Amino acid sequence: MRKYYVKSGDLRVIILGEDEKDAIMRALEFVTTSDVQATKPAATLDHFFYANERGFVSMDDSDFRMNTEEVILELMDWDWEE
Question: In degrees to the nearest 10, what's the CA dihedral of 74, 12, 45, 65?
């Protein structure tokens, strides 16, 4: 697995993933199922999720991008770990 930087709106997560899409899904699983959510206010999401291996500062239009609505629909079929 590789390290990815995932962002959408206020959400910023550094996470391991098989690819950019996997990293986005894992990042959302992490923030929605961990104790992090209890200590921080809810994040405001953008229309897109962005992921790359270079860092938050270097994010631009060439990064992998997924529509937030598509991400939410994919989460409905996500194989959540117990």
Answer: -50
pTM of the model: 0.81
The one-letter code for the residue type at 31 is: V
Residues 6 or more apart whose Cβ sits within 8 Å of residue 49: 6, 7, 8, 24, 65, 66, 68, 71
Domain residues of the chain, as ranges? 2-76
Over residues 14-71, the pLDDT tens digits come to 999 999 999 999 998 888 777 665 566 677 889 999 999 999 887 777 789 999 888 8
**Size (the chain), residues:** 82
Handedness of CA 38, 50, 56, 17 (dihedral sign): positive
